[in-house]
Design brief:
Layout: E1 3-7, H1 18-21, H2 25-50, H3 62-68, H4 72-75, E2 76-78, E3 83-87, E4 102-105, E5 116-119, E6 135-139, E7 145-155, E8 168-180, E9 182-185, H5 195-216
Length: 223
């Protein structure tokens, strides 16, 4: 579900009555919107830096990549009377967690996939299973796959239907991933700035815009 933040300031509180008449409202809204966008991207970069993965494994910089995609060109639209900052959860996976829990279900994006592979340690965190060689499925019974483990090579002592004597095969060792069919990620409102931070960014940008106009065109902006 997209998240939309509308910036529609009441210029009655701005002590520059000719600002709107001079046709500068769109420029003002653009400056305010860009500030909100930049504040959001900076906030997510900071969140990423201060929240390393709990398994202390390889850092994927997932949230930094999301923050890099939050730009005025991608997320900001401006009209004559408002600016709208849109964060599309479908385009930016994980953002919706700021406003509620998110459930991931195996096969949703990749039809036919039965399980999500949840890393169990630092060695597997941040690495898709297909990138780690020598993994084997470990089972909890006939037809009941539990996860993936490091394969330990074992040498066959005699000929079998699966291979001749002297050949090797892999048996499960240390568990690396656990299989689940769905997982729910809890809400975390700290992923995004709160309303006060967004408001402060927009207000500061408006003041800076007005101050710049005042210093550049002092006579034009007199009441």
């Amino acid at each position: 579900m997209p998240i939309r933040i509308t910036i529609n300031p009441d210029l009655k509180h701005v002590n520059l009555p000719r600002l709107a008449l001079a046709g500068r409202r769109r420029e003002l809204l653009t400056a305010m919107g860009r500030a909100v966008v930049t504040t959001t991207a900076d906030h997510i970069h900071h969140w990423s830096a201060t929240h390393p993965n709990k398994l202390h494994g390889h850092r994927t910089h997932y949230w930094d990549r999301i923050a890099d995609r939050i730009t005025p060109a991608a997320c900001l639209s401006v009209t004559a009377d408002r600016a709208v900052f849109t964060l599309d959860g479908r385009m930016l996976p994980g953002i919706n967690r700021a406003f509620g829990p998110v459930t991931l279900v195996a096969g949703t994006k990749t039809p036919g996939v039965k399980y999500l592979a949840i890393p169990l340690g630092a060695e597997s965190y941040g690495h898709p299973p297909r990138t780690l060689p020598g993994l084997v499925v470990f089972w909890g019974g006939p037809g009941r796959a539990l996860g993936l483990a490091q394969g330990i090579p074992v040498t066959r002592q005699r000929d079998t239907t699966k291979g001749p004597a002297g050949s090797t095969y892999l048996v499960p060792g240390r568990a690396m991933y656990w299989f689940v069919q769905r997982v729910t990620q809890p809400q975390d409102r700290t992923l995004l700035p709160d309303e006060a931070q967004w408001s402060a960014a927009a207000t500061a940008a408006a003041k800076n815009f007005v101050n710049t106009l005042t210093s550049n065109h002092p006579t034009r902006l007199q009441a």
